[in-house]
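Retry 2 of 3 after timeout on previous attempt. Resubmitting structure tokens to design endpoint.
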């Protein structure tokens, strides 16, 4: 017997109601902010992610699902931003939209060790706003993320923010870190010892307890920010305060992808254990230009749906309780039932029937298990009289009605 691939999950029919509730809430809230949906392929050229995420990032070095096809190298997308920026440029959206807001819902893939809230195939709900560098957009995007969490009925989450500054500021921060961490190199974990040479900002994102203790002793502040970036960050903080959105400035907060600059942020929740991030995002003002497009700003974020489900108390989306269940008695009635089901469905009435040739009593139990609102019983006697028995399951009443009146009766 075949089994699912480790790190993947079957979302069974009894679970999809919760997924649908999350997705429906997301679509409704995105529409309030004038975001439009975009759907990109799950497979891209691997070089797209090497270029945008950074060749020294953990995702590129260890976590990408790669597909070799003769001379081509493809990858299952590990995140959504790079794909959307590629689509934005390839489809000339920069020529038709000076500023655009896009959202997406779909699967992502990373080859990592499965654990609570972390899978090899997982799903993101996210968005990208491309075309502006204004701090007011940072404020709106963070407030949108907060609004989404409220719409998902996620409580007690925390917002952490920081600014990485412009590329020159990031270089300054990297130099300061290298000076502070070089003397502690032997105490760092093996991964961080490599990061010290290749991608030092990733040390700040390490989950190793000893590394975290060492980083805290550095007493990082935002002194590396230039005047423009410092002013931008102050405007973001003031904007969030004006909206009453609580946040903590976390100087150690970086994002593990090279394209981030200026504002970065993260949403955490205690129910998720050590991997407590429920979503994150930030600015990428140089990414579009690096991909061959115009020099414009961008910002976005993504939530992990599996992690949202661990923290959400949003009720599942219920299927219609107006299901009609048809029970036919005899071959003639069964043949007539096929036409009757087609007629009801054509009129927008959800209906089901017994496909196992059960007895009347067993079929009634099946109708009850299906939470049917009405049960129709059609036999040869009913056909001769051109009627059908209609049972209301909510009050157990039963009566006969003319077949030509059935659709009207069920729609009332």
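Retry 2 succeeded. Sequence:
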């Amino acid at each position: 017997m075949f089994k699912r691939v480790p790190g993947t999950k079957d979302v069974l029919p009894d679970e999809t109601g919760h997924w649908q509730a999350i997705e429906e809430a997301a679509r409704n809230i995105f529409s309030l902010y004038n975001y439009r949906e975009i759907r990109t392929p799950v497979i891209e050229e691997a070089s797209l992610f090497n270029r945008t995420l950074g060749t020294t990032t953990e995702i590129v070095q260890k976590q990408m699902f790669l597909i070799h096809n003769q001379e081509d190298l493809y990858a299952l997308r590990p995140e959504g931003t790079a794909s959307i920026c590629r689509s934005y440029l390839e489809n000339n959206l920069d020529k038709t939209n000076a500023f655009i807001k896009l959202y997406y819902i779909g699967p992502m893939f990373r080859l990592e060790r499965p654990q609570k809230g972390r899978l090899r195939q997982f799903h993101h709900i996210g968005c990208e706003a491309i075309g502006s560098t204004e701090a007011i957009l940072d404020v709106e995007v963070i407030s949108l993320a907060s609004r989404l969490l409220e719409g998902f009925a996620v409580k007690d989450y925390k917002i952490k923010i920081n600014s990485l500054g412009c590329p020159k500021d990031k270089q300054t921060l990297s130099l300061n870190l290298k000076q502070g961490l070089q003397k502690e190199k032997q105490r760092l974990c093996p991964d961080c010892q490599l990061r010290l040479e290749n991608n030092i900002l990733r040390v700040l994102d390490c989950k190793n307890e000893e590394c975290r203790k060492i980083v805290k002793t550095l007493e990082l502040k935002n002194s590396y920010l230039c005047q423009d970036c410092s002013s931008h960050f102050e405007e973001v903080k003031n904007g969030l305060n004006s909206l009453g959105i609580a946040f903590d400035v976390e100087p150690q907060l970086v994002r593990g992808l090279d394209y981030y600059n200026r504002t970065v942020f993260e949403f955490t929740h205690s129910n998720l254990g050590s991997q407590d991030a429920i979503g994150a995002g930030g600015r990428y003002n140089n990414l579009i230009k690096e991909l061959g497009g115009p020099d414009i700003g961008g910002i976005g974020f993504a939530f992990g749906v599996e992690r949202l489900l661990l923290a959400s108390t949003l009720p599942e989306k219920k299927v219609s309780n107006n299901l009609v269940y048809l029970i036919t008695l005899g071959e003639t009635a069964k043949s007539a039932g096929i036409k009757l089901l087609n007629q009801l469905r054509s009129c927008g009435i959800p209906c089901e029937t017994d496909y196992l040739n059960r007895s009347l009593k067993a079929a009634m139990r099946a109708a009850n298990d299906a939470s049917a609102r009405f049960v129709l019983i059609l036999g040869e006697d009913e056909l001769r009289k051109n009627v059908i028995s209609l049972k209301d399951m909510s009050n157990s009443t039963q009566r006969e009605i003319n077949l030509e009146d059935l659709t009207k009766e069920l729609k009332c």
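Attempt log closed. The chain has two domains: 13-166+226-311, 324-411.
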